[in-house]
Amino acid sequence: MIPITNRIFRLLRSCKLHRRCYHEVSGDILVPGQIRGMDHLRDARLNKGLAFTVEERQALGIHGLLAARVKTMDEQLEICRTAFANYNHDLNKYLYLVDLQDRHEKLFFRLVSEDVEKMMPIVYTPTVGLACQKFGLIYRRPRGLFVTINDLGHVFNILQNWPEPDVRAIVVTDGERILGLGDLGACGMGIPVGKLTLYTALAAIKPHQCLPIVIDVGTNNETFLNDPFYIGLRQRRAQGDAYEQLMDEFMEAVVRRYGQKTLIQFEDFANHNAFRFLDKYRDSYCTFNDDIQGTAAVVLAGIYAAQKVTGKKVSENKFLFLGAGGAAIGIADLLVKAMLNEGCTSEKACENIWMFDKDGLVVKGRSSVESNDHRIRYEKNHPHTDDFAEVVKLVKPSVLIGASAVTGAFTREILQMMTEYNERPVIFALSNPTPLAECTAQQAYDCTQGRCLFASGSPFPQVNFNGKTYITGQGNNAYIFPGIALGVIVSGTYHISDNFFLIAAKVVAEKLSDEDLSRGSLYPPLSAIKDCSLEIALGVMQFAYENGIASTYPEPVDKIAFIKSQQYDFFYENALPARWQWPTKPKRKFCQQYDNCKK
Length: 599
Ligand code: NAI
What we know:
Elements: E1 2-3, H1 6-14, H2 17-20, E2 24-26, E3 29-31, H3 37-42, H4 54-59, H5 73-86, H6 90-103, H7 105-114, H8 116-123, H9 127-133, H10 135-138, E4 145-148, H11 155-160, E5 169-173, H12 190-203, E6 210-216, H13 222-225, H14 240-258, E7 263-266, H15 271-281, E8 287-289, H16 290-310, E9 319-322, H17 326-341, H18 346-351, E10 353-357, E11 360-361, H19 388-395, E12 399-402, H20 412-421, E13 426-429, H21 441-447, E14 453-456, E15 463-465, E16 468-470, E17 473-474, H22 481-491, H23 498-510, H24 514-518, H25 529-546, H26 559-565, H27 588-598
Parallel strand pairs: 4-6, 5-6, 5-7, 7-8, 9-10, 9-12, 12-13, 13-14, 14-17
Antiparallel strand pairs: 1-3, 2-3, 10-11, 15-16
Helix pairs in contact: 6-7, 7-8, 7-12, 12-22, 16-17, 16-23, 22-25, 23-25
The structure holds 1,4-dihydronicotinamide adenine dinucleotide (NAI).
1,4-dihydronicotinamide adenine dinucleotide (NAI) is lined by residues 177, 179-180, 271, 291, 295, 298, 322-328, 356-358, 403-406, 430-432, 436, 457, 475-477.
């Protein structure tokens, strides 16, 4: 630290050193850490738009670079809301938000976090799916890291290029199965970016601690391979040893660069890799797969919620899945865990779960099921059939879960059958984005005479049935993963226990009010996610300390206060240190002029 006089300060300014060299005027001391001038405005983290005070403008050398009016954050937020509403197309709304995030981070996160219901369908599913499909066209500024198969042997160096030293959470995809849209290769970057936006907006995890990553090993998407706008490697997907080595090297590089406790969330890997990587890495890294485990928790939350109406324990239900991929197997595995907690045996729990995929009913001896396949637990002793309606008749399920990305697969006939077997059938049409859902909310109500308890993966408009309006719930993983991530980060666990997902499911179900339920929703409103995140984090933290898997010591006595102390502040901070004094006295005229503007 160098004592600084006004003369030195002016000298620095005249040499334009104040611009590039990071410094801060704290009393009469020059300390590292502050960016001045135009660079301060161009840094999205520091930018406050017109909310810089007169004192800040003068001290930071941005006086005159901004219009005279000094605005509050709320005033600026209002403009954002108006601008957002003025866009008619969702993709344009998405682009507006991306641009806001690039230039004014706090305003962006306040906007998203304070109006979750409007913003989430834009920053996440369904609009993010469209954004990924058009990513080549809309790609503007770099956000996140692209690690390609050509970087094999150099992944650590790539991670070193990321400017933030304090990354605590990574969301990674290889883009092979983006939502229900298939292989979008490097254009899948929209997904980690969107998920990490929700980390901050919904759990107040600091944005600089979040890092989105795409593992680009090529794509098998013919359209992209021939598309001049495509942004990734224009080659077919690398597989086998090279791919495996790249993933191993990536995991090791993350630990080497950011430490063993860095949370790595896997997102939208194809089914054949998703389970393999989860099994391979879960005991040696701090990792989970949201498509498998996050989905499982949110569906279990919906089942717990339905229990309030049907009165049936989890183990008293019969579940039939359409689709036996990552989402379905993850849900089934967590249902089994929940049933075991109710005192059920493992065999009995698996008996309650039936699966049907593109090859038909999952039965013993089916050639497409290999011995290391997770579906094997749910195979039934039954002849092969590929008629789903027949299987519904056979199983008479109380809960029907669609995770197949097959539009309209829950036909009128199937939905009607569900009412024959159940007073209140439970229907989950989880496939994303909205056009791929197995049925719409309106169809579910119409075909079950309004008796169903319905939830979907993507949002649906309200349902009108028999003169009553229902607002069905969205079984969105966003109820779960931000809270789990927050709990893991604050307690410093090295691994992610399945119990975290059971805890999260219970928290979300408990947050559902009778009023929500009577409106037709199995989930609390999206605006309640922030509360869910805090409580999930608390539950995770308590579990982590009780079971000796936390590493943050000393154990905080007041855990909620501790969690809050670690969270992002959505409001502007003073750009100047508290002890800051004017290097030169501000001209009185300016102050009067700006005071007038403030009014
Ligand atoms: P996946 O690709 O691993 O599995 C798809 C499954 O559907 C496979 O088992 C496949 O055999 C089956 N399938 C395909 N065509 C079929 C047909 N005609 N009849 C019956 N089964 C058929 O994909 P994953 O990860 O399991 O996701 C499936 C869907 O669930 C996607 O649309 C995804 O967006 C959605 N999903 C929703 C979540 C949520 O709402 N919270 C979370 C995760 C996934």
